[in-house]
Every structure is written in C-alpha cells, then in structure tokens.
C-alpha cells in the first residue's frame, strides 16, 4: 500500500478582493482571511479517498510557510490526513520563496518518509505558478500526472485522466508518481466538528528547510507589485437594437 | 588595453549579443499551433538569437511553417515515436540535451497545458526557478506576470542564469510566418524513451468553430443558461459572429459543456476583440480569464452582477429573450 504525501498551501481566501500595498512591494495579507488553497483541498480529498479505498496506508500533509500554516495543516488533518509536517518559513525568506524551493522540500521529504505518491494542487491561487508538481517529479525522476481529473489505481501503477487544452487525455504511470489535482478531480468534504477536535490530537511535526538541507536563497527579486489597469466604465444599453448599434459602431459586426 | 569602465561596457554588449533563446514549439503533428507565433514575438522582445525546437512524431509541417518566420535562426527537429503525446517525461531530456549543446540563456514555451506541464520539469533539472505565464518583457532578465487571478501585476527580476519561461499567448502579437528562411537541423540525438509512464489516448472536443484562445470573437455562457441544451442559443449566436464558444466554471461544473471550454484563472485566458458574457455573474476567477478582451458585452438579468463593472456594453435582460433576438437581428 502506498504512502501519500500531500502538499497544502495557506493562501488568501479565494473570495477576497485583494489589495496591493501602497509601496508596491506586495499585496496586503495582514488581517485578511486566509484558507487552504482550493486545489490543495482537492489534493487532500483525493489522498484521503485513496486511504478509504485501502489504496493508501498513510496520508502525510505538508505545508511550507509561516506559523499560521499550521492551521491549514490542521484542516488537512480534520479532513482525514494522518499526520502533518510544518516546514516553517517566515519573513523575507517566505516573500521570495518559489515553487522550486517547495519542490526541493517535497522531494526530500518524499524520500525521507518513503512516500509513493505525492499529490499537490495544480496551482496556488496566489502566485498562480503551476510549477510545484512538475518540479517535484523532476527532482525525484518520477512520472508526473498533471492537471488530473481522474486517478485510478491499477495493478502496475496509476491510470490518470488529464485536462488538456483540447479535451482530455489518459496516461498510465508507474508508482512512485507525482499528481497535480485539477478542479474536477473530486468534491472536497467539509471537516466535521468531531473531526476538527480529533485533528488537534494528531501529530504535527515542525521542521525547517535547513533540517532538510534545502537552500532558500531567493531566485527572484520583486521589482514591483501593482494594480492592473482599470477598465473604463461602460454603459447599460436599453435594448438589443442599441446593443447591435454599439457593436456596429465598434466595428465588431 | 581597456579601462575598467570600457571593459565593463564591452562585456555587457558581448553578453547581450550572446543572448539566445530556445522556443519550444507547440504543434499537433499536422501543423504549428498558432500560439507558437505569439511566443516567437516574446522571444524577439528578449533579443538575441532565436532557435525553435519542434519535437513530435511528425514534425515536417510545423518545422516548415516556423522556418519561414523572420528572425528565427534555426529550427531543430526531433522526430520520433517516443514523443507520442508530447509528454514531459520524454521532452525534458530532449530539451536538456539541446540546452547542453547550445547553452541558451532563455527557454520559452506557451503557457498552455503543454508548456505548463513540460517547462517546470526542465527548470527543476537545470536548478532554476521558472516563470509562468508572462505578459510582458522589460529586458532580458525582467518580466511581468499576473498574480492573484490577474488582480495584481508582478514585475520580477530573475536571478538565475538560465530563464525558463512560459508565455501568455494573448499578451503578445503573433509573428507572421513569412520573411525568414531558417536552417532546419536535427536536434541532438539521444535516448529519450521513458519507462516511467505511457501515453494512452486523447479525447478531443470536436468543433467547427474557431479555437478559443485565438478567436476574434467569443460568446460565453454561465450558470444562467440552466442546461446544456440551452447552450444551443449561444452556438446559434456564435455562428452568426463566427465566434468561439466559452463557458464559466459554473457551466462546466454543472455539466452544460466540456471543461476545455472553461475561461478563467484556472481555465483558458482569452483576449478577443469581442467577448459576450451571457448569464455569467463575473466572479474574480472568471474575470481573470477575459478582462483583457477589447470589448466586453454582458447580458444578465441581475443589474448587480459584477460582470457589469467590466462590461463596455451591458444589457440587463432575460438571456432567453435577448439572445434569440440578438441572433435573429444580426
């Protein structure tokens, strides 16, 4: 049976309208509602389902970030993960932390914890990078099943349906493998109150990148973070005829 | 002898001249996908020498097309059955071998499902931090991209010596496939087979309509359509406008249309001349995929829908009346 490592990130909640800092150094995060990256919830759900189907023996949730990342890990534990590892990264180091750093951490932990399957979300909704799964797979020399909308265990490995630009494609991978979850992989469950209480007793180990021998030296310099250009206010047209007239005026028809 | 100052200048011009970019072409074995032309234009913005890699089971048509683009110095071709399905596991060692031979400063691919799957794998092998979905090139090391679903614009300087980048096609004008005559050469040979995975099959959504990400006009539907059958209203309108049809996540999740039609932060990013949003409220995640459209039209019965805040022309009406009327009057 497989041991599954699942990566989760604490991000600003998807419904929050973000604000850029006046000094253009980033976006305002203090006092803003955070939650688990939606794609990571799907990743956790898939890992827990693997365990429920007796395909996985243990689900280990990992998060890299400031102290509050532990709340995100507790959520993963409440959803059904068995234990958690928090890699504490804070301050300036966290500001410039990139998927390459996370991938190195996940790759090292996969080896240390003897994981067979790594599942992460296909992208974090804050930096929108869409890189971590691919990079983790590369570092481990494992196959990658990115943008997965269906994962099935077969005798020799996994059959994965991937969401691609023109439709869907199916691949078969060996195990060990890295999977990135797309939106349609599953419907994540809500953690129930008893499970949230139980999650408080589950083991959560704290480590640093240094413990794993991963160098967090910044690979990028943030020059600026700015608001996108604001669209000029439009107008409401009274009827279809006016709309057609406007489209003609604009040369669209 | 050079003074320290002029020596520095000399070195920096040398470096600029030595800038060289590899564009990983996206094609389907029958021809180049148009997005590759947009990526070429980003490569030319970076400056220096531009090479293009065409890998697949049949590369002839795509290689011939791209070799005609001006500003391409060489086209490297890797044709083999191992590249079936354009998998990251087989293309990564090929790109690494190509990189080893030519030492590019930049490696570019489109920020499509293809480019996003392959390039981060390459970057990890090169121990560099890739840059996803750029919308601007400031200079050879400085790039612009969006974060937080397009609600903030990040300008960053890459410190790594090799820049591995995926490019948002709609942010760069397509380079015409004319005026050039690049040499077509064989890419470095090697054993690119993988036993890690096997590509099995593809199920592509068939459509006679223009391809979503390069269409001039798009008609898009959301939850307001209520059913898959009702999407026929949009197909009829799209036919009149020679438009592609897209959808919001709500419409995809409800099973009205297949997921490859999804426009938004996690679907496709489009920027057509005309975007008609029908029965779409305009959540942050949807706006991320379409707010760079030149003209946005919204048809929605809820005057409070956020889509009206970005729409150039809004029509507060029942789509089941307004859309057929619009179609019949066009």
From TrEMBL, chain A:
It comes from the Eukaryota. Residues 24-216 form the Electron transfer flavoprotein alpha/beta-subunit N-terminal domain. GO terms for biological process: amino acid catabolic process; fatty acid beta-oxidation using acyl-CoA dehydrogenase. The keyword 4Fe-4S does not apply. Keywords: Electron transport, Mitochondrion, Transport. One of its GO terms (cellular component) is mitochondrion. Coiled coil: none annotated. Pfam families: ETF (PF01012). GO terms for molecular function: electron transfer activity. The keyword Nucleotidyltransferase does not apply. Heterodimer composed of ETFA and ETFB. Identified in a complex that contains ETFA, ETFB and ETFRF1. Interacts with ACADM. Belongs to the ETF beta-subunit/FixA family. The electron transfer flavoprotein serves as a specific electron acceptor for several dehydrogenases, including five acyl-CoA dehydrogenases, glutaryl-CoA and sarcosine dehydrogenase. It transfers the electrons to the main mitochondrial respiratory chain via ETF-ubiquinone oxidoreductase (ETF dehydrogenase). This is Electron transfer flavoprotein subunit beta.
From TrEMBL, chain B:
It is found in: Mitochondrion matrix. One of its GO terms (molecular function) is flavin adenine dinucleotide binding. Its main location: mitochondrion. InterPro entries: ETF_a/b_N, ETF_a/FixB, ETF_alpha_N, ETF_asu_C, ETF_asu_C_CS. Pfam families: ETF (PF01012), ETF_alpha (PF00766). CDD domains: ETF_alpha. GO terms for cellular component: electron transfer flavoprotein complex; mitochondrion. Keywords: Electron transport, FAD, Flavoprotein, Mitochondrion, Transport. Residues 21-203 form the Electron transfer flavoprotein alpha/beta-subunit N-terminal domain. The keyword Electron transport applies. GO terms for biological process: fatty acid beta-oxidation using acyl-CoA dehydrogenase. Heterodimer of an alpha and a beta subunit. This is Electron transfer flavoprotein subunit alpha.
């Amino acid at each position: 049976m497989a041991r599954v490592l699942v990566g989760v990130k604490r991000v600003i909640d998807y419904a929050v309208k973000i604000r850029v800092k006046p000094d253009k150094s980033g976006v305002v995060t203090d006092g803003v509602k955070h939650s688990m990256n939606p794609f990571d919830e799907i990743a956790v759900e898939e890992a827990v389902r693997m365990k429920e189907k007796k395909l996985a023996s243990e689900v280990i949730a990992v998060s890299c970030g400031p102290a509050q990342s532990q709340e995100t890990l507790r959520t993963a534990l409440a959803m059904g993960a068995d234990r958690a590892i928090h890699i504490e990264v804070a301050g300036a180091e966290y500001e410039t932390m990139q998927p390459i750093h996370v991938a190195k951490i996940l790759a090292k932990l996969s080896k240390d914890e003897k994981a067979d399957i790594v599942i992460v979300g296909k992208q974090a909704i804050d930096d929108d990078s869409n890189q971590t799964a691919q990079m983790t797979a590369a570092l481990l020399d494992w196959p990658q099943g990115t943008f997965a909308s269906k994962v099935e265990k077969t005798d020799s490995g996994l059959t994965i349906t991937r969401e691609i630009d023109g439709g869907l494609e199916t691949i078969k991978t060996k195990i060990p493998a890295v999977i990135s979850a797309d939106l349609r992989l599953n419907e994540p469950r809500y953690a129930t109150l008893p499970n949230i209480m139980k999650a408080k007793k589950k083991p959560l180990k704290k480590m640093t990148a240094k413990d794993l021998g991963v160098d967090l030296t910044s690979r990028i310099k943030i020059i600026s973070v700015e608001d996108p250009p604001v669209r000029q206010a439009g107008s409401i047209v009274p009827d279809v005829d006016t709309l057609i007239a406007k489209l003609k005026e604009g040369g669209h028809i | 002898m050079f003074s320290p100052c002029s020596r520095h200048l000399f070195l920096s011009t040398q470096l600029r001249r030595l800038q060289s970019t590899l564009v990983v072409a996206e094609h389907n074995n029958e021809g180049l996908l148009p997005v590759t032309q947009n990526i070429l234009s980003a490569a030319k913005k970076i400056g220096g020498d531009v090479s293009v890699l065409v890998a697949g089971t049949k590369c002839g048509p795509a290689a011939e097309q791209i070799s005609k683009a001006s500003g391409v110095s060489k086209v490297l071709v890797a044709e083999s059955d191992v590249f079936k399905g354009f998998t990251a596991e087989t293309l990564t060692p090929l790109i690494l071998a190509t990189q080893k031979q030519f030492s590019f400063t930049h490696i570019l691919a489109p920020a499509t499902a293809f480019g996003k799957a392959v390039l981060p794998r390459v970057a990890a092998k090169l121990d560099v931090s890739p840059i996803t979905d750029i919308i601007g090139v400031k200079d050879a090391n400085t790039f612009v991209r969006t974060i937080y679903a397009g609600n903030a614009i990040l300008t960053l300087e890459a410190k790594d010596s090799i820049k591995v980048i995926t490019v948002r096609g709609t942010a760069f004008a397509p380079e015409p496939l004319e005026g050039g005559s690049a040499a077509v050469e064989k890419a470095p040979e090697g054993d690119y087979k993988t036993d890690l995975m096997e590509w099995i099959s593809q199920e592509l959504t068939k459509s006679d309509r223009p391809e979503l990400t390069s269409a001039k006009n798009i008609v898009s539907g959301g939850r307001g359509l209520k059913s898959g059958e009702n999407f026929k209203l949009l197909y009829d309108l799209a036919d009149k406008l020679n438009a592609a049809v897209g959808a919001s996540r709500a419409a995809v999740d409800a099973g009205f249309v297949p997921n490859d039609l999804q426009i938004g932060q996690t679907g496709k990013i489009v920027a057509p001349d005309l975007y008609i949003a029908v029965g779409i409220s305009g959540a942050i995640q949807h706006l991320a995929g379409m707010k760079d459209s030149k003209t946005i039209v919204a048809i929605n019965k809820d005057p409070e829908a956020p889509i009206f805040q970005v729409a150039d022309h809004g029509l507060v009406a029942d789509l089941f009346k307004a859309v057929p009327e619009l179609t019949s009057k066009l």
